[in-house]
Amino acid sequence: MKTEHEEQRELVQWIRQACGVRVFAIPNGGLRGIAAAGRLKAEGVSAGVPDLFVPAWLLWIEMKREKGGSVSSEQQSWHDYLRNLGHHVIVGRGQEDAKEKMRNLGFVPKN
């Protein structure tokens, strides 16, 4: 089974190559020292922000592994906030699930 990192990496590659739009990651995760974490928090890093953003589609993507992983209360709060702004938010349980959800929203052609 692929890790969340592997799933996200492959999804980003697919979006960039197959969809012709820009996507970028939000560096909220990862292990950091106390000093680095403090600097990032001061710069605006916020727990719960989704992993990826596709500006052309106002689409935020929270990546999870195919099996396991859950949406935290902080993540759900961000998802609700972003949806209330009119943005789209999906939780992709693996890259194939994320692709299917993007197809269902009409962002990429259904195959």
What's the arrangement of secondary structure elements?
Layout lengths: L3 H16 L4 E2 L8 H10 L8 E3 L4 E6 L8 H12 L3 E6 L1 H10 L7
Parallel strand pairs: 3-4
Antiparallel strand pairs: 1-2, 2-3
Helix pairs in contact: 1-4
Summarize this, please?
43% of the residues lie in helices and 15% in strands.
Rg computed from alpha carbons, rounded to a whole number of angstroms: 14 Å
Specify the number of helices: 4
Helix percentage range: 40-55%
Assigned CATH class: Alpha Beta
Number of strands: 4
Q: Span from first to last CA?
A: 24 Å
Structural class of the secondary structure composition? Answer: alpha+beta
CATH architecture: 3-Layer(aba) Sandwich
The low-confidence parts are none
Order of helices and strands: HEHEEHEH
Averaged pLDDT = 89
Please outline the major beta sheet.
Answer: 4 strands, mixed
Shape: globular
Q: What is the domain total for the residues?
A: 1
Beta content: 15-25%
For the largest beta sheet, what order do the strands appear in spatially?
1-2-3-4
CATH topology annotation: Trna Endonuclease, Chain: A, domain 1
